[in-house]
Amino acid sequence: MSPAQLATRAISELPMRGARIGISPDPDGAGLVGLPVWMWTAVTPQTWGPITATASVPGMSVTARGQATRIRWDMGNGQSVVCDNPGTPYSKEEDGASASPMCGFDGYALPSRTQPGGRYTITATTTWDIDWWVAGGGVTGSETVTRESTTSIRIDELQVVTG
Asked: Which of 3, 22, 108, 163 lies in the 20 to 30 Å Cα band around 131?
């Protein structure tokens, strides 16, 4: 077995996952047209890294190390946001009308009522950079993989009637 083949085995044993998505407004409620959306992932070894795994055969061991480096948030309306960090969880103490300090979307221009199920589907694609090396040898390599997660959000309009 070659070092690259053993590296493939080590990489397959890395329990990398897609983002454990958090968004505000809460998916159980509704957001409003024009208000920002906060996005983040829970930071665990499986959702952001670093994470390692080793595969061995007699006479050779290869260790692989994965680290998430960015998340592309496709907002379900043709727009996307790329964040090179896991984002900041929303806190009720924060100003809910302000943009996320690390990863956010400026807001939807249209309500989601015309979307399937009346909701925008948000897809988070996490990019993982993986480095691998042979124990005691000079052979190394790297590759990039992605993992996806989805959630959805309802966006309503607020209309003011004056009389």
From this structure: 22
92-126 pLDDT per residue, tens = 665 555 666 789 999 999 999 999 999 999 999 99
CA distance 13 to 3: 15
- Grouped pLDDT means (10 residues each) for the chain, 163 residues: 92 96 91 93 96 95 97 97 93 62 90 96 98 90 96 90 72
Q: What is the pLDDT of residue 91?
A: 78
Retrieve residue 119's tokens. 């909701």
Cβ-proximal residues to 11 (8 Å cutoff; 6+ apart), any chain: 53, 64, 66, 130, 132, 143, 145
pLDDT at 99: 66
Longest pairwise C-alpha distance within the chain: 83
Strand 60-74 with 120-134, pairing: antiparallel
Q: Euclidean distance between the first and final Cα of the chain, in Å?
A: 79
Which residues lie below 8 Å from residue 59, measured CB to CB, with a gap of 6+? none
- Report the distance separating Cα 110 and Cα 120, nearest Å: 10
Return all residues near 51 (Cβ < 8 A) that are at least 6 apart: 14, 15, 16, 45, 65, 66, 67
Find out whether 133 and 143 touch, Cβ atoms under 8 Å: no
Residue 105: CB atoms within 10 A of its CB come to 22
